[in-house]
Amino acid sequence: MLILALDVLERDVALDVARKCGEYVDFIKVNYPLVLSAGIDVVSELSEIRPVIADFKIADIPYTASLIADIAFRHGVRAVIAHGFAGSDMLRAVRDVADRHGGEVYAVTELSSQGGREFMTRHTLEIVDVAKEVGCDGLIAPATRPERIAEIKKRAENLRVICPGVGAQGGRLEDVLKAGADGIIVGRTIYQSEDPARTAREIRERIDGLMK
Ligand code: O7E
């Protein structure tokens, strides 16, 4: 699975990159930089090109989390990303909203950055357990630490594990897939390249070759 992290700031650029790369990616992940600069309607427009994962990093009290998830699904997204550290009550609230819309929920385990180690790593496997209990569809795990992906995947059982941090953050595609990831999230390596479509196609081909 290849997920394009579309962290560009302009609507037209986002739609252009999405159209060019669409056939090579399974999902487009939309994060705050794009929505805060281009407006939420860009999510609906992108959803017409490829299924969108709304990466609004939901981490709030259950009520507010439900509102955020509901807005995302009403704009046509297929899935939302919520922070596991916010706890089971919030994940359950987001799961309920997703169920009403026939959507999916991914829970973040530990961030791929150095800071992800400061607090989150200690609780990662507990977060995996909670995500399983709540019935999340998948987990976000750090491509920068393949040894962690392997642990998370083992504990995750049938939850999908998708990993940001390949390329710009130093993670290597081969290591990540070997560790058991079901997919990778790639942003800058694709949208900042000279030819995003070609780069997306090359990554897709490498994934298909390695996952055969
Ligand atoms: O480094 P890039 O440019 O390939 O982009 C990576 C994207 O994944 C970017 O949108 C970033 O916000 C996101 N991400 C991480 O990089 N690390 C994480 O641990 C988690 C995410 C993410 O998508 O999860 C949502 C919190």
Automatic annotation (TrEMBL):
Molecular-function annotations in GO: orotidine-5'-phosphate decarboxylase activity
Active site residues of this protein: K57
A Pfam family that the UniProt record links to this protein: OMPdecase
Origin: domain of life: Archaea
Catalytic reactions on record: orotidine 5'-phosphate + H(+) = UMP + CO2
Positions of substrate binding: 7, 29, 55-64, 112, 164-174, 187-188
UniProt domain Orotidine 5'-phosphate decarboxylase: residue ranges: 1-203
EC nos: 4.1.1.23
SUPFAM superfamilies reported in the protein's UniProt record: Ribulose-phoshate binding barrel
Keywords: Decarboxylase, Lyase, Pyrimidine biosynthesis
UniProt key word Lipid metabolism: no
Sections of the chain in a coiled coil: none
Biological pathway: Pyrimidine metabolism; UMP biosynthesis via de novo pathway; UMP from orotate: step 2/2
The protein's assembly and partners: Homodimer.
Reported function: Catalyzes the decarboxylation of orotidine 5'-monophosphate (OMP) to uridine 5'-monophosphate (UMP).
Family: Belongs to the OMP decarboxylase family. Type 1 subfamily.
The protein's name in its UniProt record: Orotidine 5'-phosphate decarboxylase
